Amino acid sequence: MNAATDSRDRPLHDLRISVTDRCNFRCPYCMPVEIFGEHYEFMKRPDLLTFEEIERLARLFVELGVEKIRITGGEPLLRHQLPKLIERLALLEGLRDLTLTTNGFLLEKHAQDLRDAGLQRITVSLDSHDEAVFQQMNGRKFEMAPVLAGIRAAEAVGLTPIKLNCVVQRGVNEGSILGLAKMWKGSAHIVRFIEFMDVGTLNHWELGRVVTSREVVERIDAEFPLEPVGPSYRGEVASRWRYKDGSGEIGVISSVSQPFCGSCTRARLTLDGSLVTCLFATGGIDLRGPMRDGASDSELREQIAGVWKVRADRYSEERSANTDLDGHVKPRAKIEMYHIGG
Ligand code: SF4
């Protein structure tokens, strides 16, 4: 079956599946603790897609051209028996790449089971090399040591190459750019510096708090000379740079300063079964309802293909036009990050 393409001729290639809205961290740019306190009501189990339902929908997406699935959350390692879902997805014919994004805090315990279940590689969020900044940014003063142990365990079981994601915010952790580069230079792991984005509605985003990828590269290049590397495939999110001395590479993700909507091939499935076609969307198309009402595979496949066909999302390209002189972007009731997992 031909890959579904959208109204801008972008093929449906990547699917991000959120499997929980819960997280053990309280990163201020995603789940600020003042909102997500101990009495916060997370989604009830009957509302979540079951593993059978996730597998069925994922199979239909793969039939429509998806080759890469990323498991996200919240914190996906909090979803009970997650390796059972990984096992099911790893058997999908036509799926080439099965990966997962985690904050790494529980990774040491789960790495072997995830690998045995068929997970191919992993991305770990690591916003600083500095213990104090790390503890401040996870909103819970959790230590970094368990995350570093998780990265070592993931490497030991072969969940490689490991990508390490750092969301850079001016006035918060830009001092960690060089520290993280130094920490992982010479290792096989790739640090990716992500421009701070106005995801969801809770992170008080301002243009002035964005450290652009150009600045990130300049800072590192001044100490460790870099050269650009071409993309591995169309739609690759990160721009790649390698150290001229051959000791590895870094990535930068520039949604604000160099929007890449033109090659965006990503669909998202929320934990309660909605198809979302952009990280900054205000809503999705419910697939869980029709599925639980008995829709056939071809009816569901047609619905997914129909949504993708008319897709025209280009939020990041439009952002600058919606940003005022003070650097504030026009408010929009976007879906929260912890519901669609970035
Ligand atoms: S803003 Fe939306 S369309 Fe653009 S790259 Fe991000 S997810 Fe894709």
Keywords:
342 residues; TIM Barrel; 11 helices; globular; binds iron/sulfur cluster
What is the count of distinct domains?
1
Helices and strands, in order, run as EHEHEHEHHEHEHEEEEEEHHHH
For the sheet with most strands, the description reads: 12 strands, mixed
Unreliable spans: none
The CATH architecture:
Alpha-Beta Barrel
Proportion of residues in helical segments:
25-40%
Strand content: 15-25%
Number of helices: 11
Characterize the overall form: globular
For the termini, the CA-CA separation is 28 Å
Identify the bound ligands: iron/sulfur cluster
Number of strands: 12
Please identify the oligomeric state: single chain
CATH fold name, please?
TIM Barrel
Task: Let me know the average pLDDT.
Answer: 95
In words, what does this structure look like?
This protein is α/β, with parallel strands linked by helices and 342 residues long. It has a single domain (14-340), classed as Aldolase class I (TIM Barrel, Alpha-Beta Barrel), CATH 3.20.20. The model has no long low-confidence stretch (mean pLDDT 95). The chain has eleven helices and twelve strands. The two termini are 28 Å apart. The structure holds iron/sulfur cluster (SF4). Residues 255, 260-261, 264, 266, 278-280, 313-316 line the site of iron/sulfur cluster.
Outline:
The protein is α/β, with parallel strands linked by helices and 342 residues long. It has a single domain (14-340), classed as TIM Barrel, CATH 3.20.20.
